[in-house]
Amino acid sequence: MVRGGRCSDNLIVYIQAIRRVxxxxxDTKASVESLLGLDKWDWERTSHIEITxxxxxxxxxxxxxxxxxxxxxxxxxxxxxxxxxxxxxELRACYIACHEYGNGAIKWRYPAGGKGISYRFG
Length: 122
Ligand code: SF4
Hints:
The structure is a single chain. By secondary structure, the chain is an alpha+beta fold. It has a single domain, classed as 2-Layer Sandwich (Alpha-Beta Plaits), CATH 3.30.70.20. Helices cover about 35% and strands about 15% of the residues. A hairpin with a 2-residue loop joins strand 3 and strand 4. The longest helix is centred in the N-terminal third of the chain and has 22 residues. It binds iron/sulfur cluster. Iron/sulfur cluster (SF4) binds next to helix 3.
């Protein structure tokens, strides 16, 4: 994963990750859900994701955060955008989409000290 890279760098990494998962599921005939079940999460007590201003979200036409995250971290709850940082796959797609096509409300960092997801490939 590219840390601190440009949006286009991160988008390439995201696309490569999707391709890897697609190939892995085709090779093993395993579902994405069963592959995700192999992974391990060690959560931080505080969220590494933040929505800085719900007014930006209320005025966001496309709301791409609801569409790009394969873990469906973001949900719409009434007029607000809610998120479950504990399901984050650390693809950073939400941040890229929010800042490229939304109103830029997402603040995102990698979980500190090795916390977050550890990928396992079987
Ligand atoms: S994409 Fe960003 S600004 Fe738009 S609704 Fe989602 S978090 Fe809010």
